[in-house]
Amino acid sequence: MSVAVKKIRMGFVGGGEGAFIGQAHRQAAGLDGRFELVCGAFSRDARNNQDTGAALGLCASRCYSDWRRMLEAERALPVDQRMELLIIVTPNHLHAPIASQALSAGFHVFSEKPAALNLAELLPLKAVLERSDRLYGLAHTYLGYPMVWQARQMVRDGVIGSVRKVIVEYPQGWLSEDVAGQGNKQAGWRDLPEQSGLGGCIGDIGTHAFSLAEFVADQPIQHLCAMLNTHVASRQLDDDAAMLFKMADGASGVLIASQVCAGEENPLKIRVYGDKGGLEWRQEEPSSLIHRSLDQPMRVLRSGVGQPWLCDAATRRMRLPAGHPEGYLEAMANLYGDFATAIRSNVDGNVAPGVPGIDVGLRGMAFIETVIASHRGDTKWTELVCPQ
């Protein structure tokens, strides 16, 4: 007879009514029934905060006016009642301060990316994490897709041979106009360096493309040559980026990230070519992985439970038979599932297997700062150095 595993009690900072990403996190966390929402500090607006909590079935006493009060009050509760995991879905400038305090208070942390505003802020957070016995994860959601793991395994297995070329692109169109000036709050804070960090587009979506390239190609980017643009005159930060890069094992690559590609939605795409073939994956059609070969017809691998040609890492991240689409929420749910397994398994260290952690955050932040340095400098190649 199986023993019931208790749900993990989670709390939210941010994600009040009207915030897309908070709702996405709650839906993803609830998909497999392993989490239970017990508290939140959802918004600085008192009405929004209470309305959000009430809509989610929370009692008013556990809808806190700010995150500091929530950490203090939850820590004072009996162990079997208090929050175990804190979810951070605020603007970027609060990610590191909240995570640091939560870890110090004894809570696990799962945060939206980026991990901090800059490397100088992130390094102290890493030190706090390493002194704790808690887990830390980052919501690099695209690394939760099953066919991304399939692509990585095929690279590792040598199916396409030695990797020579990586092309990754992430064009969006939602910032083609001055939507911040029209009152769009999500666009507004993303253009404030004090809330978003030094990178605009490159920090918001360029880091997703960067992490995807390193994950699938299974090697780090070491040097890059970048150009940034700001096409909408009222903006402070970049809304368009392009670069060449060189990877550790000799592959060369191209990365494009833009939020002014009018008409585009969310077509993140990666192509990886070796000396024997290539792979292509597109986020808007995530169930398909294209495999091209030098001496065979092109084939399309499709996701789905029970497909014998898929690797274990991909298969265990699927829930439905072939032909039943699984998308963004399921990919995020995979990160939550791996995080839940790590918490309940009491894994050693601060990393939940399968979940991007502090090292991915460090590389993402080093990437942003290297891109900016390359754009501002006059050398051909700028080395990407990631502190340990």
Helix content: 25-40%
Number of helices: 12
List low-pLDDT spans. Answer: none
Number of domains: 2
Termini Cα gap:
46 Å
Major pleated sheet = 9 strands, mixed
CATH class of the largest domain: Alpha Beta
- Judged by helices, strands and strand pairing, the structural class is alpha/beta
Second rung of CATH, namely the architecture of the largest domain: 2-Layer Sandwich
Order of helices and strands: EHEHHEHEHEHEHHHEEEEEEEHHHE
CATH topology (fold) name of the largest domain? Dihydrodipicolinate Reductase, domain 2
Integer average pLDDT? 96
Strand content: 15-25%
- Shape estimate: globular
Description:
The protein has 388 residues and is α/β, with parallel strands linked by helices. It has two domains: 8-141 and 352-356, Rossmann fold (3-Layer(aba) Sandwich), CATH 3.40.50.720; 146-318 and 364-375, Dihydrodipicolinate Reductase, domain 2 (2-Layer Sandwich), CATH 3.30.360.10. It is built from twelve helices and 14 strands. The strands form two sheets. It has a nine-stranded mixed beta sheet with strand order 13-12-11-10-6-9-8-7-14. Strand 8 and strand 9 form a beta hairpin. It is globular, with a radius of gyration of 21 Å.
